[in-house]
């Protein structure tokens, strides 16, 4: 009795969806056991559920999140009943592994469902009715509801698949040869993807070619991020997703991290602010996948906090998914490359910070030399190759069109972001950045001087990309942030 009570309580405390498992097993014991065994079983379950009821209020909303349960998880789906049933049978046969070929799902499903049905019919009286109704009725209700609301997720209904296996066990008990043959066939089918899972967890493939494993969006995203993220960057996302986190942290040779923002559904905003501050203190760039779920972050706190506490340096589309790039003012100040160019008597370009993904994401560090100068000027940023040909450019009012020079205050420092879209095969070797100010009405550039007061050619501050990293490395391995 004590063993049954302790294991039941442990299962209840581990995850709230296990309440379905424990409840299902409790009901099974009530029906299947007799005499003293039934009494001891009932006492064990009463003890486990009683202790669980005392512990549950201590968890508060962190245990049962009504908003999340009401809206459905990001990975929950609205499915027609026949599709939901097929997926549930697949999960019951193969677990959470992807099924490599269609006939495995068909054969495994037929064996599982057939074994349950024949095993249930082999029972007598209440046992037969229990095994039939306990599987068919809840699944029927569930898949119909899932047609209108995003309910589908295997862990919601695994207890009923447990009853299906009880039916199979009943068949093996009443007709050992037939039941044993069905059981062995199921084990053989499960062994194929299981063996691949042992070799490479969550790997859906039966082939041995590494490239053939990279068919899903989760793997494609992480594979490409390995090539573009800098050594001190971190991957983050807005909703918990085990597949994204697994491939980002464990599948490839490099751990990209997996920062969940917010960390949990009821996270207070002040705690989230500290989390973002700490994250950007430890990492140069946050590559944030806005994997939004209204049940996880109904008030868009992640967007609010990132806008207030981080510096957005642009967006990237990688493997068909959009990511937002964030850094901190402290990182820019620490890792900027000094320039020290002066433009007229109004502005000094103190330094430049950049990170390369598919594009170049620059931050220009300006200091105002005059108080609200009466000057209409725009910033130009040109990327030119070794022969002086223009490769990419950005022209805008400073700070994303929000801070014209007329608004600058004497001594103020401004961080001015300029993403530069790169062609498919950019000529990085020998390339340089040229930055300056010009009058958009006349096209005339403000005079530019270096720190010694010598006028700069073309009135532009020229900074070779080799200042950040050797040109060959920058060309071969994007993802260098201010280094």
Structure characterization notes:
The chain has 16 helices and 14 strands. The chain is of the alpha+beta class. The chain folds into three domains: about 200 residues, no CATH class; about 110 residues, Translation Initiation Factor IF3 (2-Layer Sandwich), CATH 3.30.110; about 140 residues, Coagulation Factor XIII, Chain A, domain 1 (Distorted Sandwich), CATH 2.70.50. The strands form three sheets. The protein has a five-stranded mixed beta sheet. A five-stranded antiparallel beta sheet has the order 11-8-7-6-13. Strands 10-9-12-14 form a four-stranded antiparallel beta sheet. Strand 6 and strand 7 form a beta hairpin.
Poorly predicted sequence stretches spanning 5 or more consecutive residues: 60-75, 200-215, 470-474
Overall pLDDT = 79
Which overall shape is indicated by the principal axes computed on the Cα atoms?
Answer: elongated
Helix/strand structural class:
alpha+beta
Strand order of the largest sheet: 2-1-3-5-4
Individual helix count: 16
The share of residues in extended strands comes to 15-25%
Number of separate strands: 14
Largest sheet: 5 strands, mixed
Radius of gyration: 31 Å
User: What oligomerization state is this entry in?
Assistant: single chain
């Amino acid at each position: 009795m004590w063993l049954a009570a302790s294991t039941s309580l442990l299962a209840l405390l581990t995850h709230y969806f296990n309440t379905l498992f424990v409840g299902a097993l409790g009901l099974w014991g009530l029906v299947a056991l007799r005499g003293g065994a039934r009494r001891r079983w009932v006492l064990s379950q009463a003890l486990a559920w009683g202790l669980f009821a005392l512990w549950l209020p201590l968890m508060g909303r962190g245990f049962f999140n009504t908003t999340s349960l009401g809206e459905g998880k990001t990975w929950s789906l609205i499915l027609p009943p026949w599709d939901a049933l097929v997926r549930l049978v697949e999960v019951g046969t193969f677990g959470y592994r992807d099924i490599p070929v269609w006939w495995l799902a068909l054969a495994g499903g037929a064996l599982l469902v057939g074994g349950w049905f024949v095993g249930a019919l082999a029972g007598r009286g209440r046992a037969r009715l229990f095994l039939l109704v306990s599987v068919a009725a809840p699944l029927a209700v569930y898949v119909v509801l899932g047609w209108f609301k995003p309910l589908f997720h295997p862990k919601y209904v695994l207890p009923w698949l447990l009853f299906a296996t009880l039916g199979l066990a009943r068949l093996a008990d009443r007709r050992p040869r037939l039941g044993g043959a069905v059981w062995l066939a199921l084990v053989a089918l499960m062994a194929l993807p299981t063996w691949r899972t042992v070799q490479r967890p969550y790997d859906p493939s039966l082939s041995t070619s590494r490239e053939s494993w990279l068919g899903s969006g989760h793997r494609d995203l992480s594979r490409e991020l390995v090539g573009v993220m800098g050594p001190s960057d971190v991957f983050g996302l807005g909703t918990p997703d085990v597949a994204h986190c697994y491939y980002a942290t464990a599948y490839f040779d490099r751990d990209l991290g997996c920062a969940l923002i917010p960390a949990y559904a009821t996270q207070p905003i002040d705690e989230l602010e500290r989390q973002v501050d700490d994250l950007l203190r430890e990492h140069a760039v946050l590559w944030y996948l806005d994997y939004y779920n209204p049940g996880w972050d109904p008030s868009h706190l992640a967007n609010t906090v990132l806008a207030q506490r981080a510096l957005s340096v642009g967006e990237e589309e990688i493997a068909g998914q959009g990511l937002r790039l964030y850094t901190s003012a402290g990182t820019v100040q620490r890792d900027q490359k000094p320039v020290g160019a002066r433009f007229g008597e109004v502005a000094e370009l103190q330094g430049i910070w950049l990170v390369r993904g598919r594009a170049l994401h620059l931050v220009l560090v300006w200091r105002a030399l005059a108080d609200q100068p009466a000057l209409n000027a725009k910033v130009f940023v040109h990327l030119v190759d070794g022969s002086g040909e223009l490769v990419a450019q950005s022209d805008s009012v400073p700070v994303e069109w929000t801070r014209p020079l007329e608004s600058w205050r004497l001594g103020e420092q401004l961080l001015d972001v300029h993403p530069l879209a790169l062609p498919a095969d950019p000529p990085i070797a020998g390339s340089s950045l040229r930055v300056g100010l010009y009058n958009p009405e006349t096209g005339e550039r403000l005079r530019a001087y270096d720190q010694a007061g010598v006028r700069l050619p073309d009135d532009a501050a020229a900074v070779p990309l080799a200042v950040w990293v050797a040109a060959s490395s920058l060309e071969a391995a994007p993802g260098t942030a201010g280094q």
